[in-house]
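Reviewer comment 2.1 asked that we show a complete input and output for one of the modelled complexes. We chose the benzoic acid case, as it is the one discussed in the main text.
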Amino acid sequence: MNRLPFLSQTLHPQAAGPVRLPPGYRGGTGWMPRIGDIFPDFEARTTQGPIRFHAWAEGRWTVLFSQPGAFTPVCTTELGSLAEAIPELDRRGAQAIGLTPDPVADLTAWCADVAALFGSAVGFPMISDPDGAIAGACGMTHPKESPDVPIRMTLILDPALHVRMIFEYPVRIGRGTEEILRVLDALQARDRLEVATPADWQPGDLLLVPSAFSDEEADARFGAGGWRPLRRYLRVLAPPATAHRAAGAAATRLPRAR
Ligand code: BEZ
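Response of the prediction step:
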């Protein structure tokens, strides 16, 4: 059964090769992923064999990252860092998958070398996109860079394949794996608890009442007294594990109410 109706619709005329881009994603300069979009489906060759992306990704959180190339310094450290973080991804019900323009044989050799360098196996697939068909159709190239070379992009997709976070880094700047894990935690807290998270939030810190909730709705959702206003527009609540404490006593980087 086709769970995603757009998959049976006409392919985007600009979508070269294996990518199925829904008609609603058509645009004069090509589609760019936006938060809330369902990420397009595609077929790919990977270091773990051929995949159809939706079938592979659906049902778990996915960290999808593109890199300009194998056997390059920044990309190597990023791959090692993510390989080391696989237990942390597992703890969050998440999986990683990378994409570069290199042939599968080169990616396989590079992954082995990264494992030797960092002491952690690259236990996730790396997609080979030699002609840039996937990167180009999925907004992972940049008009100012080569059309065949992916930029340093990271997307977090939820189990229903929606884009929930997008980072783009310059070619010479390596990504922060800690930030990827932090955003996964924040997105999962948001979905589980219907909260917002403040700047620099870490698990255990105070949470925010989303601005969309009236005070009455906040009472209904979090309990009267379960949250408190620092300002009319800034309402905080303790995370569940510390709910027995006064909200202001929880670890927080927020100002105390004055
Ligand atoms: C790097 O990962 O260091 C890199 C990748 C592509 C071009 C230049 C540098």
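The mean pLDDT is 88. We note this here for comparison with the apo prediction described in Section 3.2.
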